[in-house]
Prior knowledge:
heterodimer; A: alpha/beta; Rossmann fold; 2 domains; 7-stranded mixed sheet; 5-stranded mixed sheet; 13 helices; disordered N terminus; B: alpha+beta; CATH 2.40.50.100; Chloramphenicol Acetyltransferase; 3 domains; 4-stranded antiparallel sheet; 31% helix
Amino acid sequence: MAVTSSETTASSQTMNNVEAVRATLYEAMKSDDRTIILGEDVGARGNVFLITKDFIDEFGPERVIDTPIAEASIVGIAVGMAMEGLRPIAEIQFADFIYPSFNQIVGEAAKTRYRSNGEYTCPMVIRTPYGGGVRGALSHSVSIEALFYHVPGLKIVAPAFPADVKGLLNAAIDDPDPVLFLEHKKTYRLIKGDVPKGHYTIPIGEANVVRPGTQLSVVSYGLYVHWALEATKSLEEEGISVEVIDLRSIRPMDKATILSSVEKTRKLLIIHEDNKFGGIGAEISAMVAEEALFHLDAPIRRLCGPDVPAMGYAQPLEEAFMSSPAQMADAMREMVRF
Amino acid sequence: MPTTITMPQLGETVTEGTVAQWLKRVGESVEKYEPFVEVSTDKVNAEVPSPVSGVIREVLVKEGETVATGTPIAIIDDVGSGSAPSPQTPAAATKAEAPSVPPRSNGQPVVATSSAPLDEALRKASPAVRRLAREHNVDIRGVKGTGNAGRVTAQDVTTAAASGPAAAVGHAPAVPSGTSTYAEPVPGTTIQLNQARRIIAQRMVESKQTAPHAWSTVEIDVTELWKWREREKGRFERETGYKLTLLPFFIRAVAQGLQAFPLVNARFTPEGIHVLKEINIGVAIGLPTNLIVPVIKNADRLTIKALGVAAGELIDKARRNKLGVDDLAGGTFTVNNNGANGSILSAPIINGGQAAIVTMEAVVKRPVVRDDAIAIRQMMNACLSLDHRVLDGYTASGFLAELKRRLESMGPDGAI
């Protein structure tokens, strides 16, 4: 894993994803007075997942701001702060609530540098938990990445592993332009891993081959990277070798890593939780068709959520929306045998 | 598609039902929502509507029999969808196979011809397979497929290529890209492609595929021209050592026609139509195994005599295989003196990149109408193929009319 570090010590620490977010935010607050956290329940409540617990006591209510339930204002205020030299980290409590702030993100934050001819930049992070599989029902399960990845000027990051959470969140905070930082809520406490100590960044826009293989390239991000890895383990016993790429950054997208993998395996399966139509998989698929058609030995396939308005609350509906590791293994097997 | 009908749950607490009466029998058709069975439970009696339109194929529960809810009670062949019967069910499989294998008179089933799976292999070849097959010179039809349903995979191609040239060549010779590989294998000998043949094949395919060809023909009276050539040929041969054919006269008229219609002396480029300043006439020369088109540069500046010498030199060189690169480069228009063996009509393929090509067909004595009387004249067809991207019929026919006018005005009192 590519880890650049300014002051990494030899030691690391085992954390889950929520602890990695918390630790990274704490270090950012500690090391730079310009860092401001704002959002619903980030102060007294310490965030609904306890990510910013006790931050308000240490850093005060002027740097850890409890906002009203007004997402357009949360992002709009952060845009103003960022343009005037602060380093705001705005939180949208659940990605499902991001819609009121759409104009502030797409119309303002993403265009600030361009509109001002580079005179102003918008160095801000918008963090938000997304994704389903937690019985979150219609308004706590949504994936929003496809709504934003069409927008030039906006970076989108969706790490899957704790060490990537830290490295990419640091990179997002350091970035001179707005970054939408997506945290899959089911991975929050489910996924644990070693996280290097000290400040380090992982460049935004670099994918990671988390499992090398020869017969099929699987591209995914977030929770499904873990499930895809689980699926490949069962296939390994059948002698099927699958390469798994964790996209990590959705935009900019690491075309080179995807293309070199496809040129090797000649087959591509894209797996994401978000629904299929116009999703991230559509862009990856188009890009590979444009640039690597004559390396393809099978039609590109996408395993995605169904095109239904939302993830239902009922367990069978939620299961119908999510792709299971077994379904992933089936799709992988079919593609390898094609 | 067959639909399996199960015992419905008639009420939340009901766990079983009794088939009271079948309202439809096996073989009878049923509309969607039409009741087809009556079911009784300890709470209600109900007619059960069919979920599909179709034909009752099978009844699985007899009247009076009680079964648990969810138990299959009947199978309906869904005719509404119009899809083929599912191969999973034996009955459907039998039906599906029966008409496709008609017995021959001797009772033997018809066996699929061996070319069918081969063509299938080509049709299903993925972009990667096609590219690898081309790179490694592998004939896909000769490769054993290990993929789904015998598909030849990219791995199969690289394996075949690695296993040596014998396997790589397969059972058919490599062909230049763009040439059909779909022909049925028929006994015969294969002439290996030499470089020239390969280039000709490639250029012809390229021209036909990129330039939309249109055709036009004019009939030209060359009686007077013929007399002129007859008058000049003896002296010409004595002075130059070459025979005087009609070709230099044609080239002269073509060059003058191109001056009058510059758009015919042009080439199509993505940026626009490039009208060429030089008039360099390619002369198509057919050899037993080859076709070659040497070029007479700046043909519009040469006299008929000079054109005759230039053409004579080039034909001589071509026959002795002595043409150099310079002799072949720079053509802007092509003339094919096609009539030597009696051809009277052609649809020539435009020489790569040019706007048009003209053939001069056989000169034949024909009865024609002159001043309302029938006269015997020496007639010749000139056939033009044009790149319709560059010019339209209006310009092309103007060019042909000019060509006709010029050739018909050439007479025995001219000077070469």
